[in-house]
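User: I'm writing a short report section on ligand binding and want a predicted complex to refer to. Could you take this sequence and calcium ion and write out the structure as tokens? A short remark afterwards would be nice.
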Amino acid sequence: MNRFRVPSSEFRVPGPGIERAQRPVLLSDPKPETRNPKHGLNSERGMALMVVLWILTFLGVVCATFMFSMRTELAAAGNFREEAEAYYLAEAGVYRAAAEIINADRNVPPNSSLYDSLDEHWHFNPAAYEGVPLGRGSYWVRVSDEESKVPLNGASDPVLRRLLSNSGVRDGRLVSVIVDSIQDWQDADNLHRLNGAEDGYYLSLPVPYKAKNGNFEAIDELLLVKGMTPEILYGNASRERRGTLEAQLPWERDLQPGEYLGVAPHLSIHSVGRVNVNTASPEVLMALGLTPVETKLALDRRTEVPFRSVGELTGLLTSVAGGARQGFAVVPEGQPGPAEAGQILGSLNQMGTVLSRHFSVESVAQVAGSRLTARVAAILQNVGTLGRPQLSIRLWTVNPRQGA
Ligand SMILES: [Ca+2]
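Assistant: Sure. The structure tokens for the complex follow:
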């Protein structure tokens, strides 16, 4: 048995040493470790470089954040400065208007009757009001008198009815509801008129409130009154359409059903309760009861020579009473139309005036090169005696709602 024994060394399966020698060297194989005396030093330098890079990155981020924050701060400070400048420019515009209002009354020739009209410098004054340069910017001012509007507190039913129906409220019942409710809102009692509303109605609303039983303090307050809607109060015509309609006289407009021009621009809560027939809009003259023919007559006459007294207007109306009294059919059937001549003349004598005591001033200003604008709206009251004007500020609003 031992003879045929093959020496184990001859038939030995190749061991790992041989396999290693025959296998091709792969790129992925780890490099044989070499002993470099400088190896330890390089590793330390690499670490230091990494630390420095991280510190630099951190510092870069801190600097960028700081720069961004500074830029924001600078922009905010610049905006604040421009806003302040624009505000004081707008304020200057209001005081310029105040000076014009005072000068208009102060420079009246002696022994002449006093009146306020639209051709006077307090109202029409492009040199003083349109893009007036001052400091680093300029301002624009618009002045209107509150006596050119219907006094909301104390307005009679017919005046309110005519104003509403001419502004596009065609439904006679809705006109009655709004007018009765306006009067109920103001009167002290809690007894509602035929179409009006008092606490009983307002407390039944989803968001209940009580009738005011006092004077209106803002035109917006009308939105709380039964029947009134934002469309009827402010109008719902588009800007272009509004421009077209406002360029026409009230009786020339073809208001579509459901189209309103808004009554808010023709109502005031600051006036003395009288209407200046020299400055009243055609809408307001018609609300006072003038027919379209009479309104046109009054507008033409005051463009040539302003009325020096209400008597001049009533005299003019009396001279054309008769045929002109019939006017045009501007209000649909069943709507409040012109009243009798005697009633209108009586109402004009009671409500009319040729003087304005309250002025609403709106001033907009902008610093040159800035996109910021500042707006100031003010109500100025002339508390002086005739010929000796003295203004006091009744209301001062900074950046009021547009169109308010
Ligand atoms: Ca009441």
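A remark for your report: Residues 39-106 form the longest helix (68 residues). The mean pLDDT is 85.
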